[in-house]
Amino acid sequence: MGFNRETVAAWCGRGILFLVLAMLAFGPLAFGAVYLWTQLVLFGLAVGIGGLWLMQLWLVRRPKLLWPPLGWAVVAFTLYAVARYFMSDIEYVSRLELLRIGLYAFIFFVAVNHLHGQDETKWICYTLIAVAALTSSYAVVQYLHQSNVVWNELSPYAGRASGTYISPNHFGGLLEMILPLALAYLLLGRIHVITRIVLAYAAVTIAAGLTVTFSRGAWLGAGAGVLLLLIILIGQRAYRWRALVLLLILLGGGSLFVQQYLSKTVGYMRRVVKPDAVGPAVLDNASRLQMWQAARQMWQDHFWLGVGPGLYDYRFREYRPEGIQLRPDHAHNDYLNLLADWGTVGGLIVFAGLGIFMVGMGRLWRYIRPGDNEFRSGMSNRFAFYLGAGCGLFALAVHSVTDFNLHIPANALVGVVLLGLLASNVRFGTERFWSHAGWLVKAGVTIVIGLTLACLVVQIRRGSGETQWLARAEDLPVFSPERAAALQKAHASEPKNFETTYNIGECLRTQSLDGGENYAELARQAMNWYAIGIQLNPHDGYNYLRTGMCLDWLDQSGESEKYYAQAELCDPKGYYMIANIGWHYVQIGDYAAARQWFLRSFRLESRPGMAQNYLTEICGPKLLEKAAGQRFPRPNIGEKTR
Predict the structure, then answer these.
(1) Residue environment code for 296-309, b if the CB has 16+ CB neighbours within 10 A, otherwise e
(2) Which domains can be identified in the chain, with CATH numbers?
(3) How many angstroms separate the CA atoms of 335 and 333, rounded?
(4) How far is CA 11 from CA 15, 112, 128, 144, 225, in A?
(5) pLDDT band at residue 255, thresholds of 50, 70 and 90?
(6) Exposed, middle or buried by CB within 10 Å (0-12, 13-18, 19+), for 80?
(7) What's the whole-model pTM score?
(8) Cα(251)–Cα(257) distance, integer angstroms
(9) Cβ(213)–Cβ(169) below 8 Å
(10) If we measure between CA atoms, which residue out of 124, 113, 117 comes closest to residue 449?
(11) DSSP state, 213?
(12) How far apart are the first and last CA of the chain?
C-alpha cells in the first residue's frame, strides 16, 4: 500500500482536532490553566498542533487558507504585543504575556482554517458542554459538602463552589459562555431526541454549577447571554413559542428557587443581601472601584502605550489606594486592564477588532438563519452555534466589566475558539476571503508558525526546569541552605524570574540574621541577589527594602537610607512596607521617627501586627524614658550572635 498524501493530510486534520479538544478540556480541568506548569502543557499541545498544520500544509497539493476580516485585527495586536514586549522593563512577566497572546492568535487561525467544518464544530461544542456539565457536577458536590478543596489544593473562597478552578468568579466565566451554547443546541439543533435530553440535563447542571459559585458578575453575564438568546428567538416567528416557554420556565422556576431555597443560604446572604459585609476572601464593590481608579491613573500616566504587557499588578503598588493592601492580580475589569497594560494603541486595535466582528456577525445573519423553505422545522446546527456562541461571548463581555476572565488562559482559549469559529462563517456569505496557498504563501506561513513554535519550545524547556526546582524548594525547610540551593537551580533554568532571586536573597538574609562567623558574607550574598532582582524588576520595592535591612545589619546605616527612600517610592501606601521602614529607625535609635512610621502603617492597616507591637512595646516605652530624662543606649545592631 503506497503513500497517499491526501490520506495523511486528512489524519493530520483529525490530529489537530483531537489536540484542540484536549486543550479545551485540560485548561478548565487544570485550575483554569492559571499556573505556569499548566500553561506549559498548553504550549506543548500547541506545538503538536503547529507541527500537524505544517505537515498538512505541504502535503495538500493546492491548500486553501481562510482569512476573515477579523484576522487583520488579530495580527495587528499580536505584532503590537511583540513590539511592546521589547520595550518592557519587566521582561519575564511580559514574555509570558506575549506567549499567551501568541498562543491565542495561533489557536484563532487554527479554528478559522481547520475547525470550521460541521463535524468539527459539533465535536468542539459537545466537548465544551460535557466539560462544563462535569465540572458543574463537581461544584455542586463541593457546595453540598461545604468543601473548598479543588483537586489537591485549597480555594480561599469558603462557602462558594469553584469547580475545578481556584476562583468561583472565573469558573462562572467558563459556564456563562457555555450555557447559551447548550440552550441554543437544545432549542435549535438538528439532533436526536436522546441527545436533546442529554443536552437538557447538561444545561440544568451547568445552571446549578453557576448558581453555587455565588458570583454576581457571572450571574449577570449568564443572565445577559441567555436573555439575548431568547429575545432574538422571540423575534423570529419560527422559534417564538419555544423561546417564550423557556423564558417563562426560567423566570418562574428561577424566582421560586431563589425564594424557597437560595435566599436562605449563607452564600446568598453574604453576596447579595449584604454584599459589603465581606470576609477576608471576598472582594467588595468599593475595592473594585479603587482598583479601577488605579488602572485609570496608570492609563493616564502612560496614555499611548500603557505600563507594559501584564504589568498592572507589578505597577499597582505605586498607584495603590489606601484601602487596598493586598495584591489585586488584575484590575477586575478587563477593559480598564487592557488600557492600563497596553495603552490607547492597544485599546484601539482591540475595539476596532470588536467592531469588525460585530459588523460581520450582523452581515452574516441572512446567510446563517435557515430559510422557511430550507428547514420547515426551523432546526439548524449552524444557526444554533451562531446564536449560542455569539450569546456566550456576549455574556463573557458583560462579566468582563467586573472581573478578569480574559486573563484566565482556559477561559480565554474557549473564547478564542468560539470567536474563530464564528469568524470563519464569512465563507457562507462570499468566497473572496478564501485564497490558494502557493509556494510563497506556504513559505511565509511556515516561517511564522515555525518561529511561534520555536518560542514555545524554548519556554517549555526553561519553564519545565524552573517549575521542577521551585516545587522541590517548596518541600524543603523555609530559609534553609537546601532551599536556597534548589532556588538557585531554578534561577539557572529561568534567570529572568525576579521572584526567585528575591526568595534566594531572603534565604541568605535570614541565615545571616542567625549570626555566626559568616554572617557578613551571607548578608553580602543576599544583597547581590537583591541587586539582580532590582535589575529584573525595578518596580519591586522589597528588593530595596531588604538591601537596606542588610546594610543596617552590617552597621552601614548611612548607606541604607537611599534604599529605604526608593522602597517607599515603589510602595508609598503599603502598610507592611511603611512598618519595615519604621523598623529601620528603631535600629538606629530614632524612636520618634520610628513612631511616626508605625503610626502611618497602623492607619493603613489598623489591626494587630508589626506596627502595633513596635508602638506599644518599644517606641512608647523608649520615648517615655526619654521624656523622663533617662538615658538609654543606642541599639547595638552590630552584635551578630543571638
Answers:
(1) bebbeebeebbbbb
(2) 5-270+287-451 (no CATH), 476-567 (1.25.40.10), 573-642 (no CATH)
(3) 6
(4) 6, 18, 23, 44, 36
(5) confident
(6) buried
(7) 0.95
(8) 10
(9) yes
(10) 113
(11) T
(12) 81
**3 state SS of 590:** coil
At 65, which helix (H) or strand (E)?
Answer: strand 64-66
Cell of 304: 499611548
CA atoms of 407 and 427, how far apart (whole Å): 30
Q: Is 12 exposed, middle or buried (0-12, 13-18, 19+ CB in 10 A)?
A: buried
Contact 391, 184 (CB under 8 A): yes
Percent of the chain with pLDDT over 90: 84
Identify the pLDDT of residue 635: 53
Q: Are 189 and 378 in contact (CB under 8 A)?
A: no
As a whole number, mean pLDDT of residues 475-489 equals 97
Identify residue 618 by its one-letter amino acid code. Answer: I
Answer whether 346's CB lies under 8 Å from 338's CB.
yes
Q: Within 13 Å and on the Cβ side, how many CA atoms surround 606?
A: 3
Residue 311's SS3 state is coil
Q: What is the dihedral of CA 99, 102, 107, 109, to 10 degrees?
A: -170
From residue 46, alpha-carbon distances to 54, 66, 309 in Å are 12, 20, 21
Angle in degrees, CA 435, 437, 440, rounded to 5: 130
Give the DSSP per-residue string, 484-496.
HHHHHHHHHH-TT
Which alpha helices (DSSP H) does 214-333 contain, by range?
A: 216-234, 240-260, 266-268, 285-301, 312-315
614's CB contacts (< 8 A; 6+ apart) are 579, 582, 583, 586, 594, 598
Single-letter amino acid, residue 445: V
CA dist 281 and 436 (Å) reads 54
The cell for 446 is: 511556515
| The residue type at 336 | L
CA distances from 634 to 87, 342, 446, 587 (A): 47, 50, 70, 8
10 Å Cβ neighbour count for 632? 11
Radius of gyration, CA atoms only, the chain: 28
- 3-state secondary structure at position 227: helix
Are the beta carbons of 216 and 274 closer than 8 angstroms? Answer: no
Which of these, 214, 382, 374, lies nearest to 283 by C-alpha position? 214
Could you tell me which residues come within 8 angstroms of residue 292 by beta carbon, excluding any fewer than 6 positions away?
331, 332, 333, 336
Cell (9 digits) for 314: 507589578
Res. 579: pLDDT tops 90: yes
CB 43 within 8 A of CB 107: no
pLDDT tens per residue across span 386-432: 999 999 999 999 999 999 999 999 999 999 999 999 999 999 888 89
- Write out the three cell numbers for 377: 422545522
* Mean pLDDT, residues 598-607: 91
Residue 17 CA to residue 45 CA, distance in Å, equals 11
Indicate the residue type of 531.
A
Which ranges of 307-373 would DSSP assign to H, the alpha helix?
A: 312-315, 334-368
Residues 256, 261, 262, 264, CA torsion sign: positive
To which residue does cell 424566582 refer? 255
Q: Are 13 and 119 in contact (CB under 8 A)?
A: no
